[in-house]
Amino acid sequence: MTLQPVTVAELSRQLAEAHASRCPVSAVDLASLSAIRDYTPEDMTVSAEAGIRLSALQAILAAKGQWLPIDPPHPDRVTVRELVSQDRFGPRRAGFGTIREHLIGIEVVLADGRIIHSGGRVVKNVAGYDLLKLFVGARDSLGIITSATFKLRPLPECELVLAAQFESLASAWKTIRALLDSPITAVALDLHNLSAGTFTIVLTLAGTRTEVEWQRTHVTGFDPLPNAAQHEHLFWSELAPVYTTESVLPSKLPEVLATLGSAPFIARAVNGIIHHRGAALPKPAAPLALSRRLKDTFDPRHILPEAPL
Predict the structure, then answer these.
(1) Residues 150 and 6 placed together within one structural domain of the fold
(2) Are strands 199-207 and 158-166 parallel, antiparallel or unpaired?
């Protein structure tokens, strides 16, 4: 069953009916819930309904010199609900963290139709249980996110993207280690093999113009990258839409990347995230007992999708 509510109250009613009849919900379309509920630039917070696209939200914030520092692929398609429920992120996770660091409030309709709120509209909020983190990455398995409140950041005055190519993984990793040990603070530091026969490091610096210029003096052997997002667009294109994401210790990246052979990859060198095509690598066992307890508590009749393990 697919739900297409026009209001949060209607979604609440629809889920309550599905819960009562034990009817599984296969999809929920929140395209009608795409308004900005509250935006206070002076407080650097915004509350947005879950159906709004990330690109549309960023455009509104940019008019005031602000942004939500999360940059997943295809922001023109990703909604606020997907951003939170799927824990989407991009290369700038190295400098700005994940959506968890920016989420301060959330509204969710549970499987039985109850509407709950966690957090608030201020950055410092200690009222009630901190339930909002449970719904980050839960993929709608515990409830349907209908709005979220975020703390914002000023748009960087200056951003510089640099790149260098290497003939071997070992030489590229040696340079990455040197960058990590240097005084610079990378907003993004990626390694990919999307150029035939080479390994490419993409380094992003951001901040005030003075900060960026100072950091640039500590980076040698790199040239400005004219089309900074090209490697991301190439990898996330729909021509080959099979992607797998792995998370390893950053120190283990070279070892793990070597096992991928010639499979295309983008590795986030600061935090050990690997996006690649091809078969998944072995993963540690998921905490099944805890996951099942959460599912049984929030969705006892299991009408919402099961979260992938």
Answers:
(1) yes
(2) antiparallel
Asked, for residue 47, whether it belongs to a domain, the answer is yes
3-state secondary structure 97-134: CCHHHCEEEEEEECCCCCEEEEECCCCCCCCCCCCHHH
- Three-class SS of residue 47? strand
CATH code of the domain in which 227 resides = 3.40.462.40
225 lies in which domain range?
158-276
Other beta carbons within 10 Å of 210 = 10
- Each residue's pLDDT tens digit, 43-98: 999 999 999 999 999 999 999 999 999 999 999 999 999 999 999 999 999 999 99
Pairing of strands 153-154, 158-166: unpaired
| CB atoms near residue 129 (< 10 Å) | 7
Number of residues written out for the chain: 309
CA–CA distances in Å: residue 55 to residues 8, 51, 60: 23, 12, 9
Distances (CA, A) of 169 to 155, 173, 273: 34, 6, 16
Residue 159, phi then psi, degrees to nearest 5: -140, 135
d(CA 95, CA 187): 4
